[in-house]
Amino acid sequence: MNILVINAGSSSIKFQLLELPAERVVCSGMVERIGAVDAILTYETSESQHSETTSIPNHHDGLQRILRLLLDPDKGVVKDISDIDAVGHRVVHGGKEYSDTTLITQQVKEKIAELSALAPLHNPHNLEGIIVAEKLFPDAAQIAVFDTAFHQSIPVKAAKYALPAELFEKHDVQVYGFHGTSHKYVSEKAIQHLGTKSGKVISIHLGNGCSMTAIENGKSIDTSLGFAPSNGLIMGSRSGDVDHAIIFHLVNKLGYHLSDVERMISKESGMLGLTGYSDLRDIQRAAENGDQNCQLALEMNAYRIKKYIGSYAAILNGLDAIIFTAGIGENSSLLRQMVCTNLDFLGVELDRNKNDQRSNDLREIQSAESKVKILVVPTNEELEIAKQAHQLMMKRTI
Asked: Which residues are marked as active site?
């Protein structure tokens, strides 16, 4: 079964075509800088690589270009559009309604649109990818995999805010959690590696968006992102945790419009607000060259992560492993080192030589004396989406 996975962002589309159940990647690629005249399209198969810089005005054009490459007589990997059985879509916010992988209907699309108010940086673009894919792949099943689904197991004592009860009961104001597809994938890999089904694991997903999840017996029991994907850790342009009184102060005392505050917290804060850079590689280079703002931002980032490690170790009543994953988690040995320093009271001790080594595989980076495993686990959201889509397709044929 051929499943095309689409991960549509605000200015990008990641894609993979996978053959299931063999889990074979047939091709993969990415469209970056959508809307710009110098957009970048990359495409890779086992036999060839292709890259071009061109104008890609919108997501529809980006997906059309992907389709042309899939069908290209020389570079292509399918003979006809009908060879694609399903299209799996990453959707960030599924609310309380969607706790499982879901076949997309008009009702599902309307709900995704409704939830865009809670995930304005993600859901609108996820929905746009769905609408375009329906037109370009009319015979394929369109399937949504929700980032929030993995966190449905969080108990009420952790999911409910200390607000008037009717907000929870009537208006679904609660912790939803995000990056669930990634946390699910890497935690399953880690638990399999540990050889136990009852692992107490903290998964740390560090990219432009960041989150942490406490996982016990393979289930999410708490997570740092809540009602919307904006709180918790310090992110590329999102603030993470702030005292909500600051918002009232900005509006009532300093004269900010509420929409300006929303934009500030979501798009102008985090590492960008602290340093002027949103890419951690730029921040690390500047810090090495003596930029004090960048040095402080790295310290703040690591400090926030440590606070969550401590609280999650407490609610787990122990800790078997810490997982670092996603672009920063997998590649920044500096931030991993800063996070793991002075955690020996928890039994966490890093081996710096192992930490500095690079690999595309799951690896352990703790010292021989460490009581807690420290794992770097490459995430693969596209494979996880394809697996879940395949499972749904198989159920439909039974």
From this structure: 147
Instruction: Please give the tally of structural domains in the chain.
Output: 2
d(Cα 104, Cα 83) in Å, to the nearest integer?
A: 19
Q: pTM of the prediction?
A: 0.90
User: Residues 202, 69: one domain?
Assistant: no
Q: Quick one: pLDDT at residue 121?
A: 75
Is 281 marked within a binding site?
yes
Domain residues for the domain of 94 are: 2-146
pLDDT band for 97, please (50, 70, 90 cuts): confident
Residue 82 lies in a domain: yes
Local structure of residue 398 (DSSP, 8 states): -
Shared-domain flag, residues 142 and 225:
no
Q: What is the pLDDT of residue 373?
A: 97
Is residue 363 in a domain?
A: yes
Pair (112, 199) in one structural domain: no
CATH no. for residue 187? 3.30.420.40
Whether residues 139 and 189 fall in one domain: no
Residue 366 has phi, psi (to 5 degrees) of -85, 160
The two structure tokens encoding residue 197: 């089904």
Q: How many helices (H) and strands (E) does the chain have?
A: 15, 14
The pLDDT assigned to 80 comes to 87
Greater confidence (282 vs 119) lies with 282
- pLDDT (tens digit, 9 = 90+) per residue, 132-166? 889 888 999 999 999 999 999 999 999 999 999 99
Residue 103 clears pLDDT 90, i.e. is over it: yes
Contact 348, 372 (CB under 8 A): yes
Do 288 and 201 share a structural domain?
A: yes
Q: Which pLDDT score, from 0 to 100, does residue 278 have?
A: 84
In this structure, what token pair is assigned to residue 297?
A: 């931002």
| 328 annotated ligand-binding residue | yes
381 assigned to a ligand binding site: yes
Q: Could you tell me if 197 and 337 lie in one domain? A: yes
Check whether 293 is labelled as a binding-site residue: no
Phi, psi of 106 (to 5 degrees): -60, -40
Report which of 341, 314, 311, 344 is spatially closest to residue 232, judged by C-alpha positions.
Answer: 311
